[in-house]
Amino acid sequence: MSVFDTMRIAASGLTAERLRMDVAASNLANAQSTKSSTGSGQPYQVEAVVFEATQMGPEEAQQGVSAVAIVNPNRPTTRVYDPNNPDADTSGFVTYPNVDVATEMTDIMGAARSYQVNSTVAQAAKQQALDAIDIGRA
Questions:
Q1: What burial class does residue 47 get, using C-beta atoms within 10 Å of its C-beta: 0-12 exposed, 13-18 middle, 19+ buried?
Q2: What is the DSSP letter of 66?
Q3: What is the pLDDT of residues 38-50, one digit of tens each?
Q4: More confident residue, 137 or 79
Q5: pLDDT at position 38, please?
Q6: Helix, strand and coil in the chain, % to nearest 5
């Protein structure tokens, strides 16, 4: 496996984890959104990223990761009685998305840690390439 294969694999992880963080942050930002941006009148739908191993080189061990879909997990919404809310239905209930803040924060922390590890791998591969160039000069 070449240094460039290592960098490609680490870069695929960086890209995937950034998307995972973006989606989790969007879920947190919309935790109280009673209407989605699609104009459907429904509350925000929680999203999750689906990853898949991707072949990154000729050897089977050279697998990276790629996001294949952003899905809406089947989580029930939360109904809260608040008749003074302008989004309340005729019974006085407001429907909120079922965003679990603890789950989203855990997802962000895991994605941040994975991002950090992939960044370290890319940095180590870069340093290895620079060291090889220095050896070649000597």
A1: middle
A2: E
A3: 666 788 889 999 9
A4: 79
A5: 66
A6: 45, 20, 35
Pairing label, strands 63-71, 48-55: antiparallel
CA angle 38, 40, 46 (to 5 degrees): 65
Q: What Rg value do the Cα atoms of the chain yield, rounded? A: 22
Q: The tokens of 40 are what?
A: 């459907």
* Bridge partner residues of 52 (DSSP): 66
Is residue 50 within 8 Å of residue 64, measured between CB atoms? no
User: Is the C-alpha dihedral spanning 82, 86, 88, 90 positive or negative?
Assistant: positive
Structure-token pair, residue 116? 């950090």
CB atoms within 10 A of CB 36: 14
> Within 13 A of 31's CA, how many CA atoms are on the CB side?
11
How many Å apart are CA 106 and CA 100, to the nearest integer? Answer: 10
- What are the structure tokens assigned to 34, written together? 């009673």
Amino acid at 85: N
In whole angstroms, how far apart are CA 110 and each of 2, 3, 18, 58, 137?
A: 28, 26, 11, 29, 41
According to the model, what pLDDT value does residue 75 have? Answer: 85
- How far out from the chain centre does Cα 35 lie? 22
